[in-house]
Structure to design on (160 residues):
């Protein structure tokens, strides 16, 4: 039996009828039309489906859509402001921290969740967080450099 839910995705309200067993990943991709969160392993191990739910990085392939009712959801599509890329998106491009791009949206949102919680992480903290997502292309070093560069820029702006 379908349930009516309201999702707040990237600041927009979506009222949808969903089955109680529908995954948030499927609802975002198929009903809302946002395909940045990717289907990977379907077991929560790879992190390609990572989104921010109330500011915390979660695997949308493990999250029921009904459990996200009336909560703030942020996807990669909501990170930039029009044509202006978020600093993490820009840093990933500038540092060459993306290869095939399959894991990129999940990695960037994972990094955003980290930086929102801890604006000045150590390299070890970044490594530990990134280890929860799987990338088969980059070896993570360029991603780590990109995240630390954004943290450094943010810290420099705060001290001005």
């Amino acid at each position: 039996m379908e349930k009516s839910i309201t999702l707040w995705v990237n600041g927009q309200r979506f009222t949808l009828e969903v089955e109680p067993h529908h995954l948030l990943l499927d609802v975002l991709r198929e009903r809302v039309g946002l395909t940045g969160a990717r289907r990977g392993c379907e077991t929560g191990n790879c992190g390609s489906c990572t989104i921010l739910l109330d500011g915390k990085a979660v695997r949308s392939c493990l999250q029921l859509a009904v459990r996200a009712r009336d909560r703030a959801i942020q996807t990669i599509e909501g990170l930039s402001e029009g044509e202006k890329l978020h600093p993490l998106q820009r840093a990933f491009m500038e540092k060459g921290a993306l290869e095939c791009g399959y894991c990129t949206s999940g990695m960037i949102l994972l990094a955003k969740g980290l930086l929102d919680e801890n604006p000045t992480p150590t390299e070890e903290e970044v490594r530990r967080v990134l280890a929860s997502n799987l990338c088969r292309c980059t070896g993570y070093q360029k991603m780590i450099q990109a995240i630390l560069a954004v943290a450094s820029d943010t810290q420099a702006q705060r001290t001005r």
